[in-house]
Amino acid sequence: QRYYGPSPAEAAEAAPDPTDINGPHFDPEVFMTKVRNECPLGQLLAREAALGREIRALDSDMQTLLYENYNKFISATDTIRKMKVDFRHMEAEMDDLAANMAAISASSARVSAALQDRHRRGAQLAGVQALLRKLQALVEVPGRLRSWAGTEPARALRCHARARAVLRHYRHLPSFRAIEDESHAIMAELAQRLRTRLRCEKLDPKELTECVEMLLQLEEPAEELSEEFLSQAGARLEAELAALEAELPAADPSGTATTPPPPASDILDFVDRGSSAFVGTLCQLAGSYRAFCVTAVREGLVVAFMRWLCRTARGFADGPAERGAPAAPPALLLLLARLCLDYENSTISYILTLTDEQFPPQDSGPAVTPGPALCAEARAAAQRLLDHYVQVQGAAVAQMLRKSVETRDWLGTVEPRNVRAVMKRVVEDITAIDVQVGQLFEEGVRRAQSSDSSRRAFSVYSSSRAPGRYAPSYTPSAPMDTHLLSNIQKLFSERIDIFSPVEFNKVSVLTGIIKISLKTLLECVRLRTLGRFGLQQVQVDGHYLQLYLWRFASDERVVQGLLDEVAASAAHRCLDPVPMEHSVVELICERG
């Protein structure tokens, strides 16, 4: 207990006692003074004898304990000494192992770097070899073309088509330009031979078609090939028809024969030759003339016209107006948007179906433009035109509002007695736009309106400079700063995207125009400083707009939210923000 000391609990419970011979606070002087004062002589002698016996007993116990554990102490000392030696050996071995691991790691890094370098060099070598093979193939192109042009013209055309793009890309290099020039000369000779072959009267319809297809691959003019094809085909059909007519007997000059004489040959042989020769050749030629019809009619006429129409219509919205040139009328933008939308919905599919029925495309023929791709182009053009229409009309209304705010003295204005004329003009223009758009587009879906939309109060909040004054439509529990209140309201209100794409319906178009107009009014009010009557005039104008504009929008909360921001900005910019009583505002607006 003297060595380890008392436990914390015992130390906390036991008070310091200097006379406790077994306690941590034992004091011999205090103990002896207490014993001398309290014990008689006989008791002191007995206590002395008892202490002597205890001391001798303790010494004996300690000697016995030491004798019994001496060998263990010696063995433990030797063991610890050996462990220290072994530990030193282990440390040395660990150091050697760490050095070996570092050497191995360095060697591995060198091997990895060598392998990566070898791989990189191998990839470079493979790339160089591939490039050399391509260059060798390009160098051999003229020789191959020359050897195949006379015997296998189709193979020569395939070889030239593969090499043409590369030769055009590197034609700025003299060696590639020389190869390209030589190849062009060979292909020009091939085109000349094919032209000569095309004029041969002994070609059958299949050979004639193959000759024309190869000339088209050589980028020969399609119009000239079409004329030569029709000329050769017509001459061949006339020759076969003349051969059939020659087999018919001569007509009776007197005209007395009651029945036509039979042909010189058997009638069955005559019909068979007519079917297999003239009619068969006519069908083959008609089928062949169809690498012209698909390309010229479907792609060159129908598809090209639709794309030109979409591109031209979209140009009214995308193209910058020339200086002094009048802008496109809004009604034209709306009509073109409706036209492109109708093309996307039905016209394109109908025209392409009709064209494919008359001129069906071949599986092995040239690729044709799919209908969905044209429909997507028409819809994109319609969307761009309708968005531009909303921006133009919104800008026109916004211009009126901006001028009405900028040209008015909002500090020195008199107490409002009427709604300003510009607000009435805004409502009239929005109504006219509603009628115009309604003639071309569907109504659209409106959000369910509240029962008192037209009577909802247009609130103007007072600022901290005039505590206790506020509009009847808003009753705060304690006066608060208008700017802080406005920011708090924005946290819980839906974000209004002013220039978002509009949908193809009337309410979406009108909502877009209203958002642009009211956003302009808000930004203009933020830049002005208002007096008391100026704030009240904004209150009257805003309530008037709320009475009429909500019915045009897809969601009345958009109109109310923007007008609330106008009111809050006006109150924040006002030097004496005292709003007008709401009953008076309603009376002025109803009278206006």
Question: What's the quick description here?
Answer:
This protein is mostly helical and 592 residues long. It is built from 18 helices and no strands. α16 crosses α18 (582-591).
Number of strands: 0
Percent helix: over 70%
Shape label: flat
Structural class call reads: mainly alpha
Structure description:
By secondary structure, this protein is mostly helical. Among the domains are: about 220-245 and about 265-400, no CATH class; about 410-445 and about 500-590, no CATH class. The protein contains 18 helices and no strands. The chain has helices at about 10-15, 30-40, 40-70, 70-150, 155-170, 175-200, 205-215, 220-245, 265-290, 295-320, 330-360, 370-405, 420-440, 480-490, 505-525, 530-550, 555-570, 580-590. Helix 10 packs antiparallel against helix 11 and helix 11 packs antiparallel against helix 12. The longest helix is centred in the first third of the chain and has 82 residues, at about 70-150. It is flat. The two termini are about 105 Å apart. Component of the Golgi-associated retrograde protein (GARP) complex. Component of the endosome-associated retrograde protein (EARP) complex. This is Vacuolar protein sorting-associated protein 51 homolog. Belongs to the VPS51 family. InterPro entries: Vps51 (IPR014812).
